[in-house]
Structures are given as C-alpha cells and as structure tokens.
Amino acid sequence: MKKRFGLWLLLLLGIKVFAQDAAKIHQQAIMVDTHGDILYNQIKSGIDIGQLQSTGNFDLVRAKQGGLDVQVFSIWCDEKGGYDLANRQIDSLYSLIKRYPNRIALVNNAQDLQEAVKENKLAAMIGVEGGHMIENNLEKLEQLAKRGMIYLTLTWNNSTNWASSAAEESNQKVLSEKAGLTDFGKAVVRKLNTLGVMVDLSHVGERTFYDAIQTSTKPILVSHSCAYALNPVPRNLKDDQIKAVGKNGGVISLNFYSGFLDSTYNRKHRQFLEKHTEEFKQLSEKYGRSLAVDTLIALHPKEANEIRPSIELLVDHIDHIVKLIGVDHVGIGADFDGAESFPQGIDSVADFPKVTAALLKRGYKEADVKKILGGNFVRLLKANKGK
Question: Is the pTM of this model over 0.90?
Fold first, then answer.
C-alpha cells in the first residue's frame, strides 16, 4: 500500500513539475499568432475587444491570460469587399490601440515587436487576407504597406484576375491553362519584396503557389494552413509544397481549424447539422448560415465538443512538417474568430499555453518549442524587412 502511494506521489509531483516547466517556457517564449480574423467581427458587431468578451476567441484580456505577445490581425472581406473595407478594419485597429495605448502597440518590424514585448504590450501587426483588396492597383498596395501591412495573402477563396485560389483551382472554376500568376501577379510579388511585405501563400492554388515561390526573392509565409497528407483538403499543403517552403526558407503557420486538422471532421459536422435540421433552418433564416452554425454549437455544446479533434492531432501536423523540412519552418496561425471549431480544450487565445504543454509532452526541446511559438516568425520578419 505504501509503495503504491509512493508511486502516485511521484507521478503527481512529476505532473506538477512538468506543468511548471511548460508554464515557464511559455512565458519566456515570444508567442506569435500569425492569423486572427478579429477586426471584421469588431466592425460588424461594434464590440470592444479591449474588454473581456463572452463570445469569440480573442480580446486583450484573454490574450494576456494566454501569454500572447504578437497578434497578426487579419484584414478580411469576401470578393464583394475591397480597399475601402480593408481600411475600415485598419481604422478599427488604430482605434483600439488609441483606447488602450498601455496594453497594445502597432508594430511592423522585428525591432519594434521586441520593444513592445519588453514593454509588456501586445504587439499588433496587420495581414491583408486577399489580393482582391488592392483592386489591381500597386499604389493601393503601397498605401496598405504604409498603414502597417506586414503580409499580403495573394488570394482568399476567390481568385483575382491575376492569381488563382486553391478553392477555384480545385473545383476547376479556374481552368488549368489560366491558373497561376499573371505578369501583373508576378509584379505584385516583386513589389511586396521591395516593400519588405511578406508574400503569404495560404489560400492560393498550387499553380499560384509555385509561381509565387519562384518569383519571390525573399522567404515566404504560409500564415494559416496544415498538412494535406494528414487531411487532403485544398487549403492544406502537399508534401512537395512543404518541401518548397523549406527550400525557400519560409515558415508554415499551423491552422487550428478542426476541418483542416481532422479528415473526419467535415462528415461529423454535417451529421451534427442534419441531426438538428429544423432548428438549424430556423436559425439560418433568422441570423444567416454562419451565425446559425455558431448559435447551434452554443445550444448543443456537449455534442459539438465530441466531434472536435484532440490537440494531439494539431501536433501530428506539426510533426509531419518538421520531419519533412525541420523545426525552423513551423509557426502558429490559429485562425481564431475565422472558424466554428478548434481542438478540444482550445477555445480562445487564452489556451495557447496548452499548445506549449502538448509540444513538450511530444518530446520537443525547449529551444524548438520557442522557435515554433514565435522565433521562426521573427526570423522570417527580419529576412523580409531587413531589420
């Protein structure tokens, strides 16, 4: 009996020490999230993300709780929006910073990022998700860069007339002979290189991916994608693409969305909606489809949680990329506020320490964990900005 009690005590002490080590490593690391769809929701709903929110995945309170040091705020709109809507979102970020100058600061290079972290402020950065927002105009691209854009995602799900998206290449809405970058698209990539703005290849089709990576003279970013080998959806990267990023010196930031991590999630999600068909129909008529999904999940949390993958699957995707191209090319791009489901236990930016613990549990060394959490992104930023 005493021997059994002693074993339990050692186990508990070991768990406690591990938790303390994980918390310390997380606190010491520069924690970077390269993609959060926060600003569109802020201007749509009028919420103040400087205060704790009961909905959504991000606010400054939970960011502090999760040890988040750097948030790249995604500037997003669908193909119906453009340059003006992009600037409205940037305006809303400027307004947030003006309201909370002691808690958040706008940065666009590694030196300012590190200074903000030293001052215990969230370093806010701007990523524009969709080349349609430059409206085929390099001057508008320059203006977005002047306002703080640190990366441009060449496409969203919609193609532009100069770059084809993964969604439209895969469903053949864009014919293969017209896929990829046009001469203007290559000029966009070269302009980004000149401005020190990272070329982001999440969302782009394979033809666009290879055209862009061959055109760019600087290492690229994939801001929120996963591994196709583990879940074959068009938004994820095939192994040859992953290897091309490694050869380029770029970074792939892992997306936390269940539908990109788990190959069984989409089927389970459809079954969940079908089980509540009538309720979902009524909610859709009242709120629209996207908000109806979120509302249905909130009404049936136990069922919704059961179809979410474990955090171990997120680490599996990290492992896959690391085995192909090494730990120097992996980051975190959670896509919070841009999807309805994330791994179990990962509900907001407050839960980022669980990622650190999962990486350590898998056997990653402290130095490598710090690279994944943010060190690799800082290196990439310096390579593009020159400082």
Answer: yes
